[in-house]
Amino acid sequence: MTLQRLGELGLIRRIRARAQRDAGAGVLKGIGDDTAVLALSPGASLLATTDLLVEDVHFRRATAAPADIGWKAIMVNVSDIAAMGGEPRYALIGLAVPGSTPAEDIEAFYDGMHAAASVHGVSIVGGDTSSTPHGWCIDVTLLGEHAGVPRLRSAARPGDTVAVTGSLGRSAAGLAVLEGGAAAVPAEVARELAQAHLRPCARVAEGRWLGRAPGVHAMMDVSDGVATDLAHICRESSVGARVRLADLPVAAATRAAADALGGDADRWAAAGGEDYELLVTCAPGEVAALVRGLRDATGTALTAIGEIEAGPVDVRWIGRDGGPVAFHAGYEHFHGTGRPGAGGTAA
Amino acid sequence: MTLQRLGELGLIRRIRARAQRDAGAGVLKGIGDDTAVLALSPGASLLATTDLLVEDVHFRRATAAPADIGWKAIMVNVSDIAAMGGEPRYALIGLAVPGSTPAEDIEAFYDGMHAAASVHGVSIVGGDTSSTPHGWCIDVTLLGEHAGVPRLRSAARPGDTVAVTGSLGRSAAGLAVLEGGAAAVPAEVARELAQAHLRPCARVAEGRWLGRAPGVHAMMDVSDGVATDLAHICRESSVGARVRLADLPVAAATRAAADALGGDADRWAAAGGEDYELLVTCAPGEVAALVRGLRDATGTALTAIGEIEAGPVDVRWIGRDGGPVAFHAGYEHFHGTGRPGAGGTAA
Lengths: 347, 347
Known about the structure:
Two copies of one chain form a homodimer.
Chain A: H1 3-22, E1 27-29, E2 36-38, E3 45-54, H2 66-82, E4 87-97, H3 103-119, E5 123-131, E6 137-146, E7 161-165, H4 170-181, H5 187-198, H6 204-212, E8 216-221, H7 226-237, E9 240-244, H8 252-261, H9 265-271, E10 278-282, H10 287-298, E11 302-309, E12 315-318, E13 324-325
Parallel strand pairs in A: 4-5, 9-12
Antiparallel strand pairs in A: 1-2, 3-6, 4-6, 7-10, 7-11, 8-10, 9-11, 12-13
């Protein structure tokens, strides 16, 4: 059945039934009134972020199923909350789709959103739906809370070590696999990388732990690629940075895909984006303790990749041969270069 | 200069500078980090609502200037907070526009948003921007707070009087004027009605007062037209309603435009939508006191238009001749009937 036949009220009824079933504590009033009414923990600050996903800009229907799009729409926002060291709580969904869209696609999209939300205890509490003459346009706003002091992009200091959680480049490798490279790599590699691209996992537990750990200064999530995102930290902190390409943590599957597909694993890792790892700067003497502590608390690796420097706001990349490497920074909307990370650069 | 030339970072710099200048108390961190960090009043509940505005669905560039679109994008959301009896505080803006858009249009759009926001003490604290291959898609999320008990749609009781603030039908009349009828009506009538359509004013003070007044039960804002919006109250409260067309408050300018343009002022008032007045139900014995009290406190009229009834969930309309009148309910997206109010039906 198309949305045209189901109608907006029919659609909202279905959306609402599911949201009510999944609503967690704190939802005093969810979907169905002029606004949602929500509780926060006493004394906590409110965190708020919004991210757009536009068809044929952030995703293509050919390579991403509706449930994948829904998952990602939630997770990229959860990642922003994680990057503050906060707790994700509530989501509001703006969804504009053509009337010819099958209602099953929208239900699958909501399935994906609820799946991602439930991983992190997020309740979907409101939204708005609209027809559009064009492609899908999705805007998710995520509300969270922080009982302490959030970790800002502006807190990096000269001398800090730059470190990153997990593994970089898997999402870009996954996209290459999805866009025609699947046959060239082993099935389990293709599966792992496609999953990394379509179903990223926000580092909420890692953000919570790093956000409280002594010695951590700046923190943000890697949505547009380290090349772009570390430049944001430098700009906000008025510092420079130096990063060694050889030190970027790159998974074996990513290297295997690069070899098979003629890709550049280093470039995927530095500038591919959409990995949703956490990028931190910390006091250099604390790195070893942070690496051990994060591993023990969450099972996730933390890898030092460079240093913050006094001096011009700029990220200098050092190649495997010791010489300089230039990345044109990650995706900038409107210029139409690179590939967009779905993470917002303006909160 | 087009956005293509300015680039996303250039655009965000401009957006951010203005938002910082206008930021009110409570904005601990605005645009420029992974999330905004915000304060709420101790003990207050958080209110959250989101509304989409899609080009050629909610507005046409031919009849609405960018600053008008910006004003409305904020105000329709503020109206939802008003309808809970709450205080609007913070806005996040999702904006997808083509790269060919002049940067001046986007700045004018933000001018309009800031103008509307400043009327109600709202700070713009975050957002996301994206290119799109198609028309404008705007999603505004508004966060507010409520120190007491919000007024819900589900609180109407049989026997309640149904009443509405201000005047109905002016927005529909204004659209008729804008879509080619301006020459047929006096200039001051055209100006008043076009203003009502393009620059609606949310009833925040009225919502605050009515939200605290004894005897007020259900409350919501009139975004899709009384015919549709009262049906929402009936459905949420499991009650019916009876409304007398002759009792709807209709401004002289609206009647003048209807006469001149061959429109139906009663239909504009009942089903036109986008008036952003407040619709309340209240104990019948309290109506007179509420009318006086609201007028004294805010200068705004409150007019009784019907009653809530036990029985089937349905709104019965009584025409000027005493007989029944049928309105097909206001806009439903995807069906493509009527005209969309920009107010969300799902929070």
